[in-house]
Amino acid sequence: MAKGTQTELQLSAGRTAVIGALLITIGQLSMTLYTPALPTIAEVFGTTTAVAKLTLTVYI
């Protein structure tokens, strides 16, 4: 590469905090939506509730 053509991505502390907060929120939101749906998921896929709960274990 030629000298001076490389650009660096610099994240400020504020941007890093916002990205971190969004990642945490997405995780909590998905758990809030997924957990009550476990019985329905088990029924739709024709499996037991125990096997459906294993998907939660793998996710975590």
Gap between N and C termini, in Å? Answer: 42 Å
Mean pLDDT: 84
Described by strand count, sense and barrel closure, the largest sheet is: none
Instruction: Classify the beta-strand content into a percent band.
Output: under 5%
**Helix coverage percent:** 55-70%
Shape designation: elongated
Write the layout of secondary structure elements.
Elements: H1 13-34, H2 38-44, H3 49-59
Helix pairs in contact: 2-3
Task: Characterise this structure.
It is a single chain. The chain has a domain at 35-60. The mean pLDDT is 84. α2 (38-44) packs across α3 (49-59). It is elongated, with a radius of gyration of 20 Å. It has 60 residues and is mainly alpha-helical. The longest helix has 22 residues, at 13-34. It has helices at 13-34, 38-44, 49-59. The chain contains three helices and no strands. The chain is 67% helix and 0% strand.
Outline of the structure:
The protein has helices at residues 13-34, 38-44, 49-59. It is mainly α and 60 residues long.
